[in-house]
Write a structure and sequence with these properties.
The chain has 178 residues and is of the alpha+beta class. It folds into 2 domains: 73 residues, Arc Repressor Mutant, subunit A, CATH 1.10.10; 90 residues, ADP-ribosylation fold, CATH 3.20.170.30. It has 6 helices and 10 strands. Bound molecules: ligand HQG. The site of ligand HQG has 19 residues, from strand 5 and helix 4.
């Protein structure tokens, strides 16, 4: 089994395109495990619930959660579909980071960070994580985000079940290119 390839497909289904496999997603992002396993078995022959258990447990960023009785599964964050995955609203650390690609820098410095196709802007806890996020898009550029100041100014921050900070937008005055 190519777990990385399968995990990418699971992310596609659980964050962006449940309809590609006819999955029924509820308003909190949950999908029946039996449905997901069946869909994955149709695409990756021999796929079973045990394979899904392994991918959920070993996901490097802990991308997915089961509900208590493991009948439902959802992605912890990163959605473009309009669901509420019940992220905790919390006070962020004083500083967070955002990694992006240099081709986005001019637009970001003009209009700030926007969620683009996702529901929230994703912020990293440390510089290295931000660098790795930025590298996915091209030549990386890192911004320091003054999240503490934003919080005191009334901006709402959420933290996902797998520890990724998110907010709706970051205006340019709270960001510094590093
Ligand atoms: C950029 C991964 C132009 C933004 C990671 C980013 C993350 C703008 C891109 C998670 C802009 C959107 C999310 C503006 C923002 N003008 N470009 N005003 N505002 N952008 O993939 O943050 O492996 O939707 O900088 O670890 O890169 O999938 O967001 O470059 O946590 O679990 O628009 O995805 O996690 O790209 O990544 P994305 P992201 P997973």
């Amino acid at each position: 089994m190519n777990d990385v390839k399968i995990s990418k497909y699971i992310s596609l289904l659980l964050r962006h395109k449940p309809e590609a496999e006819g999955l029924t997603m509820d308003s909190h992002g949950w999908v029946p495990v039996t449905q997901l396993v069946k869909a994955l078995a149709g695409k990756f022959s021999g796929f079973t619930k045990e394979d899904l258990d392994r991918i959920v447990a070993e996901s490097d960023k802990q991308r997915y959660s089961y509900n208590d009785d493991e009948t439902k599964i959802r992605a912890n964050q990163g959605h473009s579909v309009d669901v509420d995955v019940e992220m905790e609203i919390a006070e962020p650390p004083e500083i967070l980071w955002h990694g992006t690609a240099d081709r986005f820098a001019a637009s970001i410095e003009k209009e700030g960070l926007k969620p683009q196709s996702r529901r929230f802007v994703h912020l990293s806890k440390d510089r290295e994580t931000a660098y790795n996020v930025g590298r996915r898009h091209g030549r990386p550029v890192i911004y320091l985000v003054k999240s503490g100041e934003m919080y005191r100014d009334g901006y709402v921050f959420r933290i996902s079940a797998n520890g990724v900070w998110q907010t709706e937008a970051v205006p340019p005055k709270y960001m510094f290119r590093q």
